[in-house]
Write a structure and sequence with these properties.
It is a single chain. The chain is α/β, with parallel strands linked by helices and 287 residues long. The chain folds into 2 domains: 147 residues, Rossmann fold; 132 residues, 2-Layer Sandwich (Hypothetical Protein Tm841, Chain: A,domain 3), CATH 3.30.1180.10. 36% of the residues lie in helices and 26% in strands. The protein has 10 helices and 13 strands. The strands form 3 sheets. The chain has a 6-stranded mixed beta sheet with strand order 10-9-8-13-11-12, sandwiched between helices. A hairpin with a 2-residue loop joins strand 3 and strand 4. The chain starts with 5 loop residues before the first strand and ends with a strand.
């Protein structure tokens, strides 16, 4: 019998739906957005205000406040947790993972496992959901950690942005910089590589071909597996709905399907218009 009591901490960049987090007792520490002297925690600033201000301002984002992380670990201690999984967005895209790993040393009474998903948005959130399921099944912490790390590349995100300008301004463009410019009509499909950095997986021309390419790449990745799938967007609901409808025509074995907006902090770096598809290959389909 597994006597471990395991908690989960994640950051708002994993886009774990708020309702899911409440239902499963997941603690989320918010990233922050700064427009000059105006600071907002992720989840507080409205999308309407965010995208209006993005038209004329370029904000900065910052890591979760240390007091939020400390408060979360203290709460896990009070609840009698023996172990905590701290599951974050890619360390190649954010310093959150490193900061939480450093702060975890101050809580020797907790066995804290810090997991770098090497992913972003709801694709990183799928790793959180995988951990939730294994905890519910009574899987020991060592085995949970082994499976999560082993299967990181079973989850991928493929996204389209109408311009690379926001990624460039925010310093998040990574290996996408080698892509021929948007001015030539190329609309790259971007994913995270083995190190968790952005890289280009396709270079179609025009929005229509780009969205169709994202659907095909995601469907090909999902083929032969039972999958968890999501379509996410940044102020691009109608486009995301078209992608969702097209994607569903190409998927056969979907365990769960999520859709929604990416967090405000992620939207700062993508800009409006992003549409992304996340796929987690949960298990091979039966022959």
């Amino acid at each position: 019998m597994n006597t471990q009591k395991i908690g989960i901490l994640t950051d708002s960049g994993t886009d774990v739906p708020a309702e899911y987090a409440r239902e499963h007792g997941i603690r989320i520490v918010p990233l922050s957005i700064h427009f000059g002297d105006d600071a907002y925690e992720d989840g507080v600033i409205s999308r309407e205000v965010l995208f209006k201000r993005l038209e004329s301002e370029m904000p900065k984002t910052s890591l979760p406040a240390t007091e939020h992380i400390t408060a979360a670990f203290e709460a896990f201690e009070r609840e009698g947790c023996t172990h905590v999984f701290a599951i974050t967005i890619s360390g190649a895209l954010s310093g959150t993972n490193g900061m939480i790993a450093l702060m975890a040393r101050d809580f020797p009474n907790l066995d804290i496992r810090v997991v770098d998903t090497k992913n972003i948005g709801i694709a990183a959130g799928f790793t959180v959901m995988r951990a939730v399921e294994m905890i519910a099944d009574g899987v020991p912490a060592d085995e949970i950690e082994r499976i999560l790390v082993r299967d990181l590349r079973e989850t991928r995100v493929f996204f389209y942005v109408p311009t690379l300008e926001f990624l460039k301004r925010g310093g998040r463009i990574g290996k996408v910089a080698a892509t021929i410019g948007i001015a030539l009509g190329i609309r790259p499909i971007i994913s995270c590589d083995e190190e968790g950095a952005y890289h280009t997986v396709a270079k179609p021309r025009g929005e229509g071909k780009a969205l169709a390419a994202a659907v095909k790449i995601a469907a090909d990745f999902a083929k032969g597996y039972v999958c968890r799938v999501a379509v996410a967007h940044a102020n691009a609901l109608e486009t995301a709905q078209r992608v969702r409808d097209d994607l569903k025509k190409h998927l056969e074995n979907v365990k769960t399907f999520f859709e929604g907006e990416i967090s405000a902090a992620l939207s700062v770096h993508s800009g409006p218009g992003l549409v992304g598809i996340a796929v987690e290959r949960v298990a091979p389909t039966a022959e």
